[in-house]
Amino acid sequence: MQEKKVQVIELFYDLVFVYAISRMTGLIHHLHHGRIGVFEIFTYISCVFIVLHVWMVQTVFYNRYGQGRGRDVMMLPLGMIPLLYISSTFTVDSESWSRIFQPQVIAIALLSLLPAVQYALEYRESQNSVDKRITGGFALSLGLRALLTLISAFLPYQIGFIFFFIIVFGGNFFPLLFTQNLSQSEVNFPHLVERLSLLVILTFGEMIIAIAPYFTIKTFGIMSLLVFLITVSLFFHYQATFDHMVDHHRKGESGVKMIYTHYLIFIGLGLVTVSLSFFKETVDPFFLIGLLYAGLGMFYLGIYANASYQKDNFRYPRSFLLIQAGIFLAGMLLSFLFTSNLLAILVIATVVVFALVGRTTQFYIRYH
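Below the sequence we write its predicted structure tokens.
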């Protein structure tokens, strides 16, 4: 399959996700009695699922069927309108949720309806039986998701709220019903890797913004350097894996695993982002350690879950992965011995991420 160049309109479309990422991260940026509430974390994860599903569906469509036609191009900015609206109304206030629930859910239904129309049009024009099954399946599942989401908007709030979140989480996995068909029609793998990498870079941009307050005349110090080292180490770990070790020219790939494992990477980076910002606040150290290592754990799990996409000479031996896991767990457990010293917790976290990316870089150099 010929490599597909990322189009400028796709990059323009990504700009709305810069705002969405910022708004989502903001949901868990505020501490209450040194912690983030369960409802806030649940809301954050739900919003990530909503936003990522929109991006993934549109990206996969453009990857497989986007040809720069007028309708393909216009659907992207059209989708930006409801996405801007729902991003602006993200909130963790339960009373506000009840007031904005109906218009927000209608906007989310529209975000499923637009790609459903795209897939339906592609189904009508496709001559390939496999592509017909794929486009028909996506059109049906997205259309059903839009309909069920719309229904939840007009149910009594308490019932509609539960129904809506079942659809949000369940609907994200509708494409798995068509895994067999997807495997029969390969995705443009270089394009998919590039698109995912670009969105990850935008997520790191939010992390840079979050640690910026450490770099003022009054706040600059050792913590500033440590949070920056963590950010850079995480970025280089991702880059080493997906830019250098992943085989961009793999054939016959559906890309399903890479897409879904990136949910872990995005949620993990969001948790790490807010964790780093909390080191300068009054925070429960036990909660901070748990949040930080939950984020790091999801990030690394998402990365190593993609090891099967790596070139043959970069396949990790089990011993390598076990040592990486040992370093991670040792750092987490050691942190609980220093709950009275946030600087020590940050130093340990820095050593952990630096050691993990260092060993990964050494592995790359050795087998390159």
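DSSP finds 13 helices and no strands in the chain.
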